Amino acid sequence: MKVSVILPAAGLGTRMGREKSGTSRKQFMLLDGAPILIHTIRKFLQCKSVTEIIVALRAEDLDWARGLVFEERPVKPVRFVEGGDSRQQSVENALSTLSPDTDLVAVHDAVRPFIDPSLVEQVIAEAAVAGAAIVGIVPVDTVKRVHKNKIRATLPREHLVLAQTPQVFRFDLLQKAFARAREDGFVCTDESSLVERLEQVEVSVVQGSDRNIKITKPTDMELARLFLEEETAGKPA
After folding, report:
1. DSSP character at residue 202
2. How would DSSP label each residue in 135-167?
3. In DSSP terms, which residues pair with 207 in a beta bridge?
4. Number of domains forming the structure of the chain
5. In whole angstroms, what is the distance from residue 105 CA to residue 46 CA?
6. Which residues are CB-contacts of 126 (< 8 A; sequence separation ≥ 6)?
């Protein structure tokens, strides 16, 4: 089975601000001397089911990122494509470069470096059976539906999940989903929403982890450093 992983990483990180590293782009913020993007790539290099990794970046970052990955001496192919102005465009650009014999495509936020490789294997296995699967967690807070600043309803948590990544789909299904969205002018916040619109398969949810955080703001970096210290401490010498 051929499984391709797409890491959209062309964002400008407007919520992150600018730290001492001189960059506001969250995927390039440093954790223990390495960009977050590299930490994320390392996780997928550990996954036996993953065949290749495709990173979608802004044009001006491609050569620099290639150099960083070359230093990693990856054990499987890591390719780069030019991303678009949105996540949706970046993923679609990467999709267009995949081989026709690709079976499954996993899309993962480049700024979720603490994904557990075993969880990646679980969601890939589920997608291989169901055709589509995502990682998600049940919210612990009470969720309210509001209009402006007024509550309109309290939503039962047992029917809710917070979507994470990776999100894994049959290649042909994801191609159809992006084509339909392009025709309709539909803009997504995740790939599952595109596949859901097709109404061809039910998307499965694999239980995720609170550690699978998406680094989007400066305060997330403190938690990321703590998680990295714990991961490093748990590795054999």
Report:
1. P
2. EEE--SS-EEEEETTEEEEEE-GGG--EEEEEE
3. 136
4. 1
5. 17
6. 133, 168, 204, 206
User: How far is it, in rounded angstroms, from Cα 98 to Cα 175?
Assistant: 11
Q: How far apart are CA 185 and CA 85, in angstroms?
A: 15
Give Rg (Cα) of the chain. Answer: 18
Distance CA 40, CA 63 (A): 18
Question: pLDDT of the chain along its 237 residues, tens only?
Answer: 999 999 999 875 544 444 443 344 678 889 989 999 999 999 999 999 999 999 999 999 999 999 999 999 999 999 999 999 999 999 999 999 999 999 999 999 999 999 999 999 999 999 999 999 999 999 999 999 999 999 999 999 989 999 999 999 999 999 999 999 999 999 999 999 999 999 999 999 999 999 999 998 888 999 999 999 999 887 654
- C-alpha 5/C-alpha 104 separation (Å) is 9
170 contacts 103 by C-beta, under 8 angstroms: yes
Q: What are phi and psi of 169, to 5 degrees?
A: -145, 155
- What single-letter DSSP state applies at residue 84? -
- Say how far apart CA 131 and CA 114 lie, in whole Å: 25
Q: Range of 216's domain?
A: 3-234
CATH number, domain of 89, equals: 3.90.550.10
Using alpha carbons, select from 4, 24, 2 the residue that is nearest to residue 14: 24
Cα dihedral sign for 139, 141, 142, 143? negative
